Amino acid sequence: MAAGGGVRAAKGILERLDSGEVIVGDGSFLITLEKRGYVKVGLWTPEAVVEHPSAVRQLHTEFLRAGADVMQTFTFSASEETMESKWEAVNAAACDLAREVASQGNALVAGGICQTTVYRQHKDEARIKKLFQLQIEVFARKNVDFLIAEYFEHVEEAVWAVHVLRAAGKPVAVTMCIGPEGDMHGVSPGECAVRLVQAGADIVGVNCRFGPWTSLETMKLMKEGLRAAGLRAHLMVQALGFHTPDCGKGGFVDLPEYPFGLEPRVATRWDIHKYAREAYNLGVRYIGGCCGFEPYHIRAIAEELAPERGFLPAASEKHGSWGSGLDMHTKPWIRARARREYWENLQPASGRPFCPSLSKPDA
Q1: Under DSSP, is residue 235 helix (H, G, I), strand (E, B) or coil?
Q2: Sequence-ordered strand ranges (E) for the chain
């Protein structure tokens, strides 16, 4: 199968999903750009879009080349609450960067908002909706293709976000940063999905906080909840690029390795092949990643689902399927690794003989 796939007809997110297309999302911005020296840990605000636009543009480009169909604006935690006077310029610049790169490959642009600290402190619905509205006004002015409300711990606040996003007249996707135990108020994943769809969300799912397998377990519960309620929506998953079977209800932020010692937990590209296939088999058609999900992980999704999509991403030009490039190696034992069975069954070592395989969450 050739890489590239040519130019596809320009269709919106719901047209693509309604027709059965697989949508490959993008991946990690905050953690990746922190490692590259462009984001500061703390509030994790995205000033890089105005301070270092070339760095953000480069990461968008890497995700596009890896097969992403969506360029999400780098606007996580970019509200007036967290960025004060800089918020508007940051949101506008993020939209421009995403559109610039998206136009190079028939990708869509999604304007993204996230949960607020106001909810945890005051639950001021009017103030929270106003914060969302300010960002949405910029997204509307920049004519993004659809809207994403992501990283919500509480379904009540996520529902408020849907109400604001719906008024913009764009398709709405909502993802919560929850695991199988549900939101921080104890609302189950299935009930969360029901409330979001009833509020008007077109696409629902989870992102961040949990690794691939836990996220898929949560997606299964969401799907079951919607089915039991007689509701339908498109499903979306954007998991961590880290293995986190030992985290608690709060997710990876409670692990002692967060955020500076997570590298031993990074998923291999072969793990992500499996994640993509299992997500697809579950009925999820919008599949991407969040923190720790590098461009090569996105390429793994696009390669695994190439038979369904009909083409390989441009980045596959430099990547032999299932290690096939190794068949040119001079050493026979390395040539023997040029096969799918080898990589699918590999149990990779960490190289850290005195380290535990699991940790105990701090909370």
Answers
A1: strand
A2: 23-24, 70-72, 108-114, 146-152, 172-176, 203-207, 234-239, 286-289
Here the tokens at position 229 are 């309620």
Examine residue 259 and say whether the peptide bond preceding it is cis (omega within 30 degrees of 0): yes
Label residue 279 exposed, middle or buried (CB < 10 Å: 0-12, 13-18, 19+). Answer: buried
Phi, then psi, of 66 in degrees rounded to 5? -75, -10
Residue 7: what pLDDT? 45
Residue 74's nearest CA partner among 14, 129, 127, 27 is: 27
Q: What is the pTM of this model?
A: 0.96
Task: Report, as ranges of residue numbers, the positions in the chain whose pLDDT lies below 50.
Answer: 5-9
The percent helix, strand, coil of the chain (3-state, each to 5) is 50, 10, 40
Distance, in Å, from the CA atom of 47 to the CA atom of 83, rounded to the nearest integer, reads 9
Which are the contacts of 306, defined by CB distance < 8 A and separation ≥ 6?
1, 312, 316
Q: Residue count of the chain, please give it.
A: 363
Contacts of 322 (CB under 8 A, 6+ apart): 338, 339, 340, 343
Residue 248 confidence (pLDDT): 96
- Residue linked to tokens 């106003």: 130
Other residues' Cβ atoms within 10 Å of the Cβ of residue 308: 13
Q: Which amino acid is at 162?
A: V
CA distance 156 to 105: 36
Q: Is 312 helix (H, G, I), strand (E, B) or coil?
A: strand
Helices 295-304 & 269-282 angle (0-180, nearest 10)? 50
Q: Quick check: 217 and 192 in contact, CB under 8 A?
A: no
- pLDDT for position 5: 47
